[in-house]
Structure prediction request, 81 residues.
Amino acid sequence: MPCCSGQAGSIGTAAAALALVLATAGAQLLPAQTMNMKDMADMAPVPPPEQLPVPIHMTGIGNSHIAIKANPDAQVWFDQD
Prediction:
């Protein structure tokens, strides 16, 4: 009689139980991931940049400043003080 036959059986049972749990969890996640896919068909296409409205410089929406490596005009648009 093998010395560890009882342990091998319990390991096999544990592995089977783990496989069942993982398969069940995967089956529950799949519909949640694909559920919103049909909603994407209703999305409007993104217009090309030349068809977008002219940007408006806004003031009073924040006071942060992070320096960027660009010309001063670009820095003003980035800061949007």
